[in-house]
Specification:
- There is one protein chain.
- By secondary structure, the protein is mostly beta strands.
- The chain is built from no helices and twelve strands.
- The strands form two sheets. It has a ten-stranded antiparallel sheet, with no helix packed on it. A two-stranded antiparallel sheet has the order 8-9.
Length: 191
């Protein structure tokens, strides 16, 4: 399959600098994949694109541009019964990026991101365990491809993507309950 993507993100510079900037990513991806039954999908391909980053702060200006070229692979396993509030099942998504100069990238690095969710219901009560693990395998990730945390259900007290780094580990446990045939998540009915 062929994908053309554009991302525009805010980011916070690391090392105790509360500087907010903008990232623009333009990239295309050509990949092939296979679906096994209705639960597993394997995809692999090439990612090419361009990154532009900037800040408006005079004390710490950032004006960066880079070419992106990488081998990408994804393993997706999905046996959740319902989205976004499953009652039972498991979900796993593993994304691997291997940036190489031979593929047109300005830098060489390796990035792995694994996300897992497991839901179990006990009568009208449901527990959803979610976890995230990401690594750079000892290589330093460029600004546009670093792991992030922050925002709703990913350290909710922080701004979205407020924490940025080469390695990430996070887990959360979410509880919700069915009342009168409706699922209540916090205080709002879902269905």
């Amino acid at each position: 399959s062929v994908r053309l993507l554009y991302d525009k993100d805010r980011f916070f510079l690391e090392e105790d600098q509360p500087v907010v900037g903008r990232i623009h990513r333009y990239h295309g991806q050509l990949d092939v994949g296979v679906q096994i039954e209705n639960a597993i999908e394997l995809r692999a391909g090439i990612l090419r694109g361009r990154f532009e980053g900037e800040t408006d702060v005079a004390l710490n200006p950032l004006d960066s541009r880079a070419q992106i070229g990488a081998f990408v692979a994804r393993l997706l396993y999905d046996r959740l019964d319902e989205y976004p509030l499953p009652r039972c099942g498991s979900w796993l998504q593993t994304d691997l990026t291997l940036s190489r100069a031979g593929l047109g990238g300005d830098g060489e690095y390796d990035r792995l991101l694994v996300r897992v969710a497991n839901a179990r219901s006990y009568g009208r009560n449901t527990l959803l365990l979610r976890s995230i693990f990401g690594t750079d395998f000892g290589t330093r990730l460029p600004l546009y491809d670093r792991h992030t945390l922050g925002g709703f259900l990913r350290l909710s007290g922080l701004e979205p993507d407020a924490l940025v780094g080469d390695v990430v580990t996070f887990a959360s446990l979410v509880y919700y309950r069915e009342i009168d045939g409706k699922l209540y998540y916090f205080k709002y009915p879902i269905k």
